Amino acid sequence: MPSGIRGIRAGGDKESIPLIWDPIPSVESGDGGEEGLSVWEAAAPQVSYPRPRNWRKLEFKNWTQLVAQGHGIENFEDDDISNAWIREFSGIPHRKLVTALQLRASVYPTREFLARGRHEAVVRSCRHCGADSETVAHNVGNCPITQDARIKRHNAICDMLSQEAKKEDWTVFHEPHLRDDNNELFKQDVIMVKGLKAYVVDVTVRYEHNTSSLRAAAAEKAKKYQRLHSQIKELTNVVDIVCIGFPMGVRGKWYNKNSEFLLALGLPKSRLGRIARALTFRVLVASVEIVHIFVNKARSIVRSGI
Fold first, then answer.
1. Are strands 37-38 and 240-249 parallel, antiparallel or unpaired?
2. Looking at the record's lineage, which domain of life comes first (predicted)?
3. Which of 116, 227, 264, 284 would be 252's cystine partner, CB 3.0–4.6 Å?
4. What angle do CA 9, 12, 18 make, to 5 degrees?
5. Which stretch of 62-66, 133-137, 143-147, 279-283 has the lowest confidence by average pLDDT?
6. SS3 for 78?
7. More confident site: 200 or 52
8. pLDDT at 52 over 80
9. How many alpha carbons fall within 13 Å on the CB side of residue 50?
């Protein structure tokens, strides 16, 4: 062996290398009564790494913190009714399914969405009515070009509620015209009467901006007809009147208080879940159709050169 290699010692300094016949150094095990362990036998120090027990919850939490794509998504956490269509989507045409997923994830390409993060001058206004910002919430809830489709969606909900109420022997009044003490005209969606009790139901479809959006809508609608108690009593000949706001989410959110109302009508729990899922699915599909109407009318205007 070359002399240069013969002088090399592993670990560096010759004096620091223990001989194989030297006693093995040991450390206390920490148990108090047990024999010490050698430095080679001692367990490696335990390092604590973050290990999420439920990666779905972690990813969902990260999703809710996104400024744009996470807008209002916390509404749908652990909601079996509102998310049922995602598991049972076989009956949805592919084009509508893609749009439904885009609506749920807040990534549908409206003008406002396409302008995000761009510093240059980009048109954000509604291509139909000129509103400042063309968002999904505007397209499916406020734009005049989709008003007829919104009325159709609203009436579909009222019809489904009326049918279920009639099955439980409630008498249903559709859109009665009543005037308050100031002669202001009101048109309730549905009044359901049974015995000496009446439910005044006002349906509304709102965009799920946050977890309080539908709760605020329900309170607003319930308050709207409080001034008409005497007129409703005269119409229905009842003693007990309850005003109900029945909000539904544009993206298929089911408001939990709606379940309490359906149970009060007498629906059995076995049918409640099915009706709730049917209502949320109907609203979601209607919202998808409204989005398509909005886009198709814009394309027809471009093709006609208007």
1. unpaired
2. Eukaryota
3. 284
4. 70
5. 62-66
6. coil
7. 200
8. no
9. 4
